[in-house]
Amino acid sequence: MREKILGILLVLFVVCFVVIIVEEAFLGGRKRRQLQRKARAAAASEPEQQ
Fold first, then answer.
1. Dist. CA 2–CA 4, nearest whole Å
2. At what angle do helices 29-49 and 2-26 cross, to 10 degrees?
């Protein structure tokens, strides 16, 4: 029983790890974060200009 639970946890860990790698590599995770940072900076500077 314990081995089965550990196996399931290991498989879930590996699946999550692979999903994170795929998202970063193929779906532009870094570019998306950079765009979000720029958008936040622009939104933060708008009230100061008005």
1. 5
2. 60
Alpha-carbon distance 29 to 47, whole Å?
28
DSSP reduced 3-state for 1: coil
Task: State how far the Cα of 3 lies from the Cα of 9, in Å rounded to an integer.
Answer: 10
Q: How far apart are CA 12 and CA 26, in angstroms?
A: 21
Map residue 12 onto helix, strand or coil. helix
Q: What pLDDT, on the 0 to 100 scale, is given for residue 27?
A: 76
- 22-48: per-residue pLDDT in tens? 888 887 777 777 888 899 998 888 766
- pTM for this model (two decimals): 0.55
- Both structure tokens of 38: 């720029």
